[in-house]
Design brief:
alpha/beta, seven-stranded mixed sheet, four-stranded mixed sheet, 23 helices
């Protein structure tokens, strides 16, 4: 008996064909959404205003005055402050890579999207360059040349932060870069790093993908051949054909030799990464000074960073304590070991012994700013949906848009930047201990940035705000109850307090143990159950209006566990608080991280399933509360009630 046709389908190949087909259609659709510069305006049309613009180009690229004027006219018409120009003959693989990263239809509106471009020419408003501290000097077409593409890619990524909703792309028909060869391994690695992408991980993934396609073609018959063939022809299917807005000079060669060229590019990139690992470029004076400072501090050990262990619960005073988890620093791999204890009576979880102020400074250093600032910014920039859900939680409880909103623990202001799309008429201010709050003000993500401890501003800001938010902030503080007192003082009567926290009662905390990411040691000082927080808010004159668990879920349980485990097994070889890495150590770390790629892929799939379940069951790994302050404003800390 002949088996049904679907029994003869090679499902691995079929799924690969489906994924490649969807990617091809998506890339072709995105390409058609990239605007093309119109013909240069004439004197009869009225020449555009070219003053106030700079055109920056990479080495060897020349832009004619007509294209410059056309770009200025397009930017003025659309309301852009940064415009990346794509050459009409942009290389095929570079074009495909850009289309994988950017959806032109949503790029302009996405305030948190990372700045992307081709790396050849970018038109920038002078005031944006000045705010970004990247003014090259000169005017118009002057001061434009001499950059490497990687430098321009990094610049566009930075400029998008200062023109969050006014950065775009356009194809310049008269701009040409000729038939450029495939970049050398170090050049390609530098360009990927400039875009915030890890070249080692991407090279490993590219090699794994090519090996999969070769295996499918050799072992799964016509379905496997179809998968390999679709990958082979993808450049032409996306970029070729009549009416295509791009005309890559290398399209025939890029299509005919794609597997060989992709393999060579991946091998060259991987070799370059082994010589200079991700995040470990050639030593600079700053890197050397940073390493020397850490070595000097660590000669005294880390025990001095811990206070004496307390014997009672800081929330309710009970002495019924037990150890919940003991972990090293899995975030940065700095030396030290930390204990979280839990109160058997109220369920409060806290770091015990807790870090001193000097200890907090030591373990926070180079995480959100400095060496780790770029990575942290990338992570926060990808939480746009979560930020919008936080901002929208207020909608059912107010008729008018709030006039003033203070985001406490704002970091670099990512929430405020995203929330402007929900509440465009609201003034957003930010407060944080780090230098990032000043950068948020320069970017225009917050109107005013306050730097310091929140309780220090209780008197200065008393009664000033209609909304105060504390998103994943209270768990970092040394005294959460004092922070709540300050929030009550800063709010106007009838104002709203929004709080989001990890939930220590989450099932995943028990399942994953020390590898549960929200333990976040040694930064998190307190994790309190929602019932404890509700009671503390009531004591301070608040009425809880809404509580969310599933919608507040952070979809990172399994992915975070793999990341923490990988960091534990293969710490960053370039970390300045450790002895200099050997070539063998770097190769081992790279091998472990490459081997972990399938685990990350599986973890991402599990997290997607876990998130879907959490949304339906309201049982996530975090919770979110919205409370309203009674009309009688409580006194500021230290005042009489």
């Amino acid at each position: 008996m002949t088996p049904p046709p679907f029994h003869r389908v090679r499902w691995t190949s079929a799924l690969t064909v489906a994924a490649l087909g969807a990617g091809t259609v998506r890339a072709r659709r995105r390409l058609r959404a990239v605007p093309v510069l119109p013909a240069p305006p004439t004197a009869a049309d009225g020449l555009p205003r070219a003053a106030g613009w700079r055109l920056l180009t990479s080495r060897g690229v020349e832009v004619d005055p007509a294209t410059f004027l056309a770009a200025c006219a397009h930017a003025d018409r659309v309301g852009l402050r940064v415009l990346d120009l794509l050459p009409a003959d942009l290389g095929a693989e570079r074009a495909l890579g850009l289309l994988r990263l950017v959806d032109p239809a949503g790029y302009l509106r996405d305030r948190l999207a990372e700045g992307r471009g081709a790396g050849y020419a970018v038109l920038v408003a002078e005031e944006v360059l000045a705010r970004a501290g990247a003014d090259p000097g000169g005017t118009g077409l002057e001061g434009a040349g001499g950059r490497e593409p990687a430098d321009l890619l990094a610049l566009v990524r930075r400029l998008k932060e200062y023109a969050a909703d006014s950065t775009g792309l356009a194809i310049a028909p008269a701009l040409s870069v000729g038939r450029a060869g495939d970049p050398a391994g170090p050049v390609r690695a530098a360009e990927l790093r400039a875009q915030g992408l890890p070249p080692g991980v991407l090279a490993g993934a590219q090699l794994a993908g090519l090996a999969l396609l070769a295996g499918l073609a050799g072992r799964q018959g016509r379905w496997g051949v179809a998968a390999a063939g679709l990958y082979w022809l993808q450049p032409y299917l996306v970029l070729g054909g009549p009416g295509a807005p791009l005309r890559p000079a290398d399209l025939p060669a890029a299509t005919a030799a794609r597997p060989a060229r992709s393999l060579a590019a991946a091998v060259r990139t991987a070799a370059a990464v082994l010589r200079t690992p991700d995040g470990a470029e050639a030593d600079t004076d700053a890197d050397t000074a940073r390493a020397a400072a850490y070595r000097a501090e660590l000669t005294f050990g880390t025990d001095r960073f811990l206070e004496p262990r307390r014997t009672d619960c800081p929330w309710c005073g009970s002495r019924q304590l037990f150890v919940r988890v003991r972990v090293p620093d899995l975030l940065q791999g700095k030396p030290g070991r930390f204990t979280l204890e839990q109160c058997a009576d109220c369920g409060h979880v806290f770091q015990n012994p807790r870090l001193t102020l000097d200890g907090l400074e030591f373990y926070y250093r180079d995480f959100y700013d400095g060496r780790g600032g770029e990575g942290a910014g990338t992570v926060f920039g990808r939480l746009g949906d979560s930020y919008r859900r936080r901002a929208e939680m207020l909608r059912p409880h107010t008729v008018d848009a709030p006039a003033s909103w203070l985001d406490v623990g704002t970091g670099h202001g990512h929430f405020c930047n995203a929330a402007r799309a929900v509440w465009p008429d609201t003034r957003f201010d930010g407060l944080d201990m780090g230098d990032g709050v000043g950068e948020a003000e320069r970017r225009g993500w917050v109107e005013t940035g306050f730097q310091g401890q929140f309780p220090e501003f209780a008197q200065k800001l008393a009664g000033r705000y209609e909304v105060v938010s504390m998103y994943h902030y209270l768990e970092h503080t040394r005294d959460p109850l004092t922070e709540l007192d300050t929030a009550a003082a800063v709010l106007a009567p009838g104002g709203f307090l929004a709080i989001e926290l990890p939930d220590p009662e989450s099932r995943m905390a028990r399942l994953l143990g020390p590898a549960w990411l929200p333990w976040f040691q040694p930064q998190h000082q307190h994790l309190m159950p929602a019932s404890n927080l509700r009671e503390a808010l009531a004591d301070r004159g608040f009425t809880v209006l809404a509580e969310e668990h599933g919608r507040a879920h952070q979809g990172n349980d399994f992915f975070g566990a793999v990341a923490l485990t990988t960091t534990r097994l293969a710490p960053d070889p370039g970390r300045p608080w450790a002895p200099p890495a050997t070539r063998r150590g770097r190769a081992l770390a790279h091998a472990v991280r490459t081997a972990a790629l399938p685990c990350f892929a599986g973890a991402a799939a599990l997290d997607a399933l876990r998130t879907a379940v959490a949304r339906r069951t309201d049982g996530g790994n975090a919770y979110r509360l919205l409370a309203r302050l009674d009309e009688r404003r409580p006194a500021a800390p230290g005042e009489d009630w």
